Amino acid sequence: MTQPRAGVLGAVFAGGALGTLARWAVQSPFEAFPLAAAVATLCINTLGVAVLAASGPITARSGPTVKAFIGPGLMGGFTTFSAVMLLLAHPGAVLAALGLPDTAILGAAAAALWLVVSLALGWAAAGLGSRAGHRLAGARGARP
Length: 144
Hints:
This protein is an all-alpha fold.
């Protein structure tokens, strides 16, 4: 395995810092409201998937530094798998925000629904993002 160059590592670091800051800026106003925070996480992750899918065709001819900045850096910092898993493991706060009791059955149903919605939106965002990326790349003459 080859070692990544310092420029690529720096790009991942810089992109990650910016992506994390952007996620914090979008999500922090909603932290006091569990349902809104959960929806904000869903929106952030869906947008992140679309941007990541669009960036592939757009950056097809770019070097590894640009790809590292956008992919594992910017979008890796912006999106959050851990917050989704935390919501799935502990849906009680969202149930309480909806005025529902935190029972095992409702918790499991809420977690299953959240997982299905997250996957469906992610899949749709990936398709739409990829299509948009190919159109933008074609318009710029960057298509491989």
